[in-house]
## 1
Amino acid sequence: MRKTTVAMPDPDEPQYNVLYITPQLAEKWLRQNTHNRNLRERVVNGYATDMRDGNWVEDGQSIKFAKGDVLLLDSPPIRGGALLDGQHRLSAIVTADVTVRMLVVSNLPDTTQDTMDTGAKRSLGDVLKLRGEDHYVTLAAALLRVYVWKQGARKNLKTAGRSRPTHRQLLRVLDEHPELRRSAEMASRVRNSVRLSASTGALCHWLFNRVDASDCAFFFARLTDHAGLVPGDPIYALRRVIENLAKATGRPDEALITALVIKAWNFYRAGEEIQTLAFKAGGAKPETYPEPK
């Protein structure tokens, strides 16, 4: 019978182990975090949410330790030094209070940290493009705005409290609302006619379509082609204020523009004529942020 020879690990080479990392073990390993970049709380909270919700995917990323004599684990016996990579994932395990399986690489030279995290992080738009989605940049922006809107945020439509949503959370939004693909397409079309950002256009199209699909189609058709618009029409007023703000500031505040679009929609739905369109966000008597009706 042929004998199989198993090579003994070289003590000078990196060691690879797939381990179940408990919150207690993660806490212990974080004590080795003596030479790393600043911890980003939003990243930790995002990872923790995925772990807690069962959305964490084992994608081959590893926890990395430098060479050292600290006993990181009794069985199998693993020794290492400073934590080189993985502080956000370990902190997320502690925050989520869950056990997660990960690849752990130890016995690395200190200099390997110089090459970690130097590549460009894959954006949600990149992920959507790889999935074959049309209008993937606009769709990615729309998914973020819809997620944040559903969290109750209004004045800042790019962040949801202390944690930025992860790709998995935003892809779930697309699974729940596949109609956002149509909203992204419409927003891209509107942007070619009036200087309304695609992210704002997609969010508003999605919001208005949920109120009344027929009125939404008419509203965005007239916003795009401005056919038959006359002074007094809320859509006419909206086009004017968008263009004026774009000329004055270049890139107007997104929450302000979104509020103006929603106000124009509400006036249109109510059949009201208006001469000017404005939104007072601050001051002594700020307006309540509008909701589509």
Note: Residues 4-8 have pLDDT under 50 and may be disordered.
## 2
Amino acid sequence: MSCHAADWRHITEERCRVTEGQPTQANSTSSVLGRRLGGELMRLRTGAGLTQTQAAKVLSASTGKVAKMEGGWVPIRDPDIRALCTLYGANDPATVGGLLELARIDRDRRKAKGWWSDVPLTKTMREYVPLESAATAVKAWQVSFIPGLLQTADYVRSLRRASAPADRPDEVEAFVASRVARQQRLTEDKPLVLWAVIAEAALRIPTAEPEMLRDQLASLLDWSERPNVTIQVLPFGAGMMRALAGSFNVLSFAEPGAMDVVYQELAFSTTWVEGGEGAAQHVRLFEETVRGSLPEAESRAFIGTLIKGL
């Protein structure tokens, strides 16, 4: 890890939020990265013993604007970040540089108009998908299902029928198209780096569609041949592990570890762990799970054996 990443991690704090989608306020939207940035600025301000009113004065702005900046409701300009860092006595180049980079990525994410703008997504996915599109790397741990980025269309259809059996066929197909479209990030000129660890149980879920499962497993083997995709299997033989408590994704922006956020989708809610020790704990848990998993080559052989048994 570079000094920049180490310094950035040192100044971060954990921000954990449970949500059903993007919170909104008037015409503003609170973004995950915006809250990461706002939280850091608020921490620096309170550490300097200053008020939002004092911060607003140096920006020639209202106290309300500073509150929105700290809450992640609005994008933040580079000059404002520099002015606030000077006011707060945060003059370390690594600290200021990390904040500026976070602000840049957040601004780009807010104005991005990707394929997700034209498809029906749930509130949760409307926040997650653009963030995934802006990420440089994802560490995905899955207990029960194939990771979303690696699901085939037929696998997605099967999941949708099970979770929303009353959906019309056109609604199902729209959902399938939006899920599969996410895979574009894995094949771009500068592709997303995906490291997926999948519990054996997720590969063995009983199904009335063995051909669907066979195709899905074969697709995993195809993806694993790409240099930017790593797939490992956590076998039953690994025994009881802490990670079995639940699935999660760690999304990295710029340098891994510097601006990580963690996404956990539960049955009825979504949890974001926005940086700090909370995100670092999930990274360590992922690494612990990797150590208990089969190496890449053995994982491919294991999946191949499962295919032959279907």
Note: The chain is about 50% helix and 15% strand.
